[in-house]
Amino acid sequence: MKIIYFHGFGSSGASGTVEHLRNLLPEDEVIAPDIPVDPVDALPYLKQLCADEQPDIVIGTSMGGMYAQQMRGFVRICINPALNMSTMSGALRTGEHKFFNGRKDGQKTFRITRDIIQHHNQMERQQWKDITDWDREHCYGLFGIHDTVVNTYDLFHKHYPHATRFDGEHRLNEKVLRKVVIPLIEELRGKAE
């Protein structure tokens, strides 16, 4: 299978989650791009990447889950999706920030401007458009019951029937990947065959 993984805010395609996914799914291809900071650049880039690569599954965590939700026409797993980043207290703050992981372009820091926050807000207001019946049935939300960063279960479940809570926090670890995410991937693999 081919999987595209979208990382969370301030992270990169070189996150620990990507490494765990590759180790737990050694027979599968896991593509993990560095997502541009501004959604004006990020959303078209990710849509084009999916169109070019034609993944079997798109997986995203946090901010990446919000982007994954918008990849219409693909099977998606959205883990603790940050569907309202622009209005979450403290999530998007103007100023200079450090990336959590190394980026392919070597950048160590990024800047959040008022324009970028506004772009997030505009995108968030548009993110529910054009959801088809097929998309509703092929988008899965996983929500950690101990997540103190993002709580979008109700918002997600308003649009998609497959919303599940799991025993975990906002950030993924290998245990949650093994117990929650990998079994869902295997279930979806079985449906695709």
Please explain how this structure is put together.
The protein has 193 residues and is an alpha/beta fold. The chain contains 7 helices and 8 strands, in the order E-H-E-H-E-H-E-E-E-H-H-E-H-E-H. The strands form 2 sheets. The chain has a 6-stranded parallel sheet, sandwiched between helices. The protein has a two-stranded antiparallel ribbon with strand order 5-6. Helix 6 (153-159) links the parallel strand 7 (139-144) and strand 8. Helix 1 packs across helix 7.
Notable traits:
8 strands, globular, two-stranded antiparallel sheet, 193 residues, single chain, 6-stranded parallel beta sheet, alpha/beta, 7 helices
Give me a quick take on this structure:
This protein has 193 residues and is of the alpha/beta class. Helix content is 39%, strand content 19%. Strands 2-1-3-4-7-8 form a six-stranded parallel beta sheet, sandwiched between helices. The chain has a two-stranded antiparallel sheet with strand order 5-6.
